[in-house]
Amino acid sequence: MKPLIPILALAVLSACKPQDPAPLPPQVGTKAPPPAAAPAAPPVSTTADAPPADATTPVTTDGAAPANATAATTDAASTAPAPAAIDGAAIYQQTCATCHATGLAGAPKPGDTADWAPRIAQGEAVLLQHALAGYTGKKGVMPPKGGFMHLSEEQIRAVIAHMTATP
Questions:
Q1: Measured between alpha carbons, how far is 142 from 134 in angstroms, rounded to an integer?
Q2: Which helix (H) or strand (E) covers residue 141, if one does?
């Protein structure tokens, strides 16, 4: 009987495994993490003569690459749609016009060649640097990204191009 007690105790203890603690409720003012996205399925071909999704070189029915394989690949790449261009004018209207349309804080107005000429003469890199990092000059102040920190460098470039091209 005495050997049976340690065996029963071992069986009971091995059946009990530690449980993970319950998750804590979210803290006030925090956002829940976004749900994990499912991986996208590879595209499925609906035609019998289409190459497999992982093919990198066109192949003829006899298994050899056609003579114009490079040309076919280049043609397909050149007909692919280009990414949408950034609308500098729209971004200007939404974010920059408050100061630049009125000249607030010394902001150069689009089309004011007297204000823009010395700035443009410094070069696009300087204009971009001043717009991204901010600048305090003799005439006025430019906060970094105009105070709109969510704007990307490409969006800032598009706005600069719009403002310097506006007659």
A1: 5
A2: strand 141-142
Place of tokens 């990307």: 152
CA gyration radius, the chain: 32
Spell out the domains of the chain, with CATH numbers in brackets: 88-165 (1.10.760.10)
Reported as a single tens digit per residue, the pLDDT across 102-143 is 999 899 998 888 988 998 999 999 999 999 999 998 888 999
Taking only the tens place, the pLDDT of each residue in 44-71 is 555 455 445 444 445 555 555 555 544 4
Distances (CA, A) of 11 to 4, 54, 126: 11, 53, 76
Q: Where are the alpha helices (DSSP H) in the chain?
A: 4-15, 69-78, 88-91, 97-100, 113-121, 124-133, 153-165
